[in-house]
Amino acid sequence: MDVKKLPDIPSIGAQFDIAGTLVKAEPFTHGHINDTFVATYQHNGQTCRYVHQRINHHVFKNPAHVMENIARVTEHIRAKFLRDNHPDVDRRVLRFVPTHDGKTYHVTADGNYWRTYYFIENARIYDVVESPKEAYQAAKEYGYFQQLLTDLPGGRLHDTIPDFHNTPKRFATFERALAADAHNRAASCRQEIQFALEHKPITAVLLDLHAKGDIPERVTHNDTKFNNVMLDNETGEGICVLDLDTVMPGLALYDFGDMVRTTTSESAEDERDLSKVHMEMEMFDALARGYLSTAGAFLNPVEKAHLAFSGKLITFEIGIRFLTDYLEGDHYFKVHRAGHNLDRCRTQFKLVESIEHQEAEMNALVARL
Ligand code: GN1
Ligand code: MG
Q1: 3-state SS, one letter per residue, for 295-332
Q2: Whether the Cβ atoms of residue 178 and residue 193 lie closer than 8 Å to each other
Q3: What is the pLDDT of residue 5?
Q4: What is the DSSP string of 7-49?
Q5: Which distant-in-sequence residues (6+ apart) come within 8 Å of 334 by Cβ?
Q6: Average pLDDT per run of 10 along the chain, which is 369 residues long?
Q7: How far is the CA of 227 from the centre of ligand 2 (A)?
Q8: Rounded to the nearest 5°, which phi and psi values hold at 78?
């Protein structure tokens, strides 16, 4: 996908069942994968905002499967809310706008995949967590999302990216990138490589537990970054989970782990001052409480006992993914400066270390909940 060529938003928008005239469209630049635009339309004197999003089909090789999963999941949640006469349904689950011929996405002549959903007003996302209350709310909402999907009918969802959280496979990919060293970058990240190699033994822990039948496959989000959940502007409550491309079969701990990665340190994912990167116990406490307030009812004891570990594992896993992409020449994650993926890898590994130093205390905390 050529991210530099600006897409023709008016003609994209015209494919969807939207009333009114486009007045402006602005790029929304928080994600590393898709291209997202917030578009304002005017109709009968009212304005209404939508999100037009180009699915990265190099990453999601089967966009039709992605949209099939998303439709099943959002319709299931929506039906539950409607059944319960929920007063705020349209702000609590993403609502997609069909194309004029009733499809969930549009394919352009040059082979790009676009979808559109209603923008959720009076709520926002944050890239960096600022208070335990926010951590609690984010985790409560992600746990609620999992809970709502425990009875999703219709069989297994598509694996939109096979082995997405298969950490041993991610590690093997890293080892191949290191052996190839196609961009001669290994010399510039010896310490990070060393750190990665030393941590190989943790990679298979969750999959081994799953293979033994100790932790079940569930419907999970798989990309539970702090900036993928919207918090209400007035109440601060978690109200809606975004970025549903990777909703698929997974382990509940993948989701909690990514919350720990992105919601326990008050620092950006690409922070260069590593002294700012630190797992804060107060945030972890709020995160675990928030998550268990909604997911506690269905998690089993083995899952609960691995909440802290999952934070370490997923932070490590994303760290090796950033390192792999750095070694491979930055073709997967969008980068905005030289060494960006290496900076991201460093923050992840710093956080892994910080979790390791506090893991016993984190486990003790969870055991008390
Ligand atoms: C990507 O799309 P975005 O930015 O929410 C990535 C996640 C990573 C994350 C790291 C499909 O998420 O797996 O954890 O970056 N998504 C995909 O910030 O690879
Ligand atoms: Mg995102």
Answers
A1: HCCCCCHHHHHCHHHHHHHHHHHHHHHHHHHHHCCCCC
A2: yes
A3: 65
A4: P-HHHHHTTB---SEEEEEEEE---SSSEEEEEEEEETTEEEE
A5: 3, 31, 32, 33
A6: 71 97 94 96 96 97 98 98 96 98 97 98 97 98 98 98 98 98 98 98 98 98 98 98 98 98 98 98 98 98 98 98 98 97 98 98 97
A7: 7
A8: -60, -45
The closest ligand to the CA of 227 turns out to be 2
With a 6 Å cutoff on the Cβ, whether 319 touches ligand 1 is: no
Q: Which atom of ligand 1 is nearest to the CA of 32?
A: 4
Q: Residue 218's beta-bridge partner residues? A: 250
- Residue closest via CA to ligand 1's atom 15 equals 32
Secondary element (H or E) of residue 138: helix 132-148
Q: Quick one: which atom of ligand 1 is closest to the CA of 30?
A: 4
For residue 223, report the distance from its CA to the centre of ligand 1, in Å: 6
How confident is the model over 261-287, as pLDDT tens digits? 999 999 999 999 999 999 999 999 999
- Phi/psi region, residue 153 (left: phi>0; alpha: psi -120 to 50; beta: rest), is beta
Q: Does ligand 1 lie within 6 Å of residue 33's CB atom?
A: yes
- For the chain, the distance separating the N- and C-terminal CA atoms, rounded to the nearest angstrom, is 46
Residue-level pLDDT at 30: 87
> Distance between CA 297 and CA 243 in Å, rounded?
25
How many residues are present in the chain? 369
**Claim: this prediction has a pTM higher than 0.90:** yes
Cα 333 to averaged position of ligand 2 atoms, centre (Å):
12
The sign of the CA dihedral 321, 324, 326, 330 is negative
206 close to ligand 1 (CB < 6 Angstrom): no
Ligand 1 neighbourhood includes 31 CB (under 6 angstroms): yes
* Ligand closest to CA 61: 1
Residue 127 C-alpha to ligand 1 middle, in angstroms? 13
Q: Which ligand is nearest to the CA of 347?
A: 1
Q: For residue 283, what are its two tokens?
A: 């945030």
Of 253, 274, 252, the residue nearest 351 (C-alpha)? 274
285's tokens: 């406490």
User: How far away, in angstroms, is 242 Cα from ligand 2 center?
Assistant: 7
Residue 103 neighbours by CB distance under 10 Å: 14
Closest atom of ligand 1 relative to the 34 alpha carbon: 2
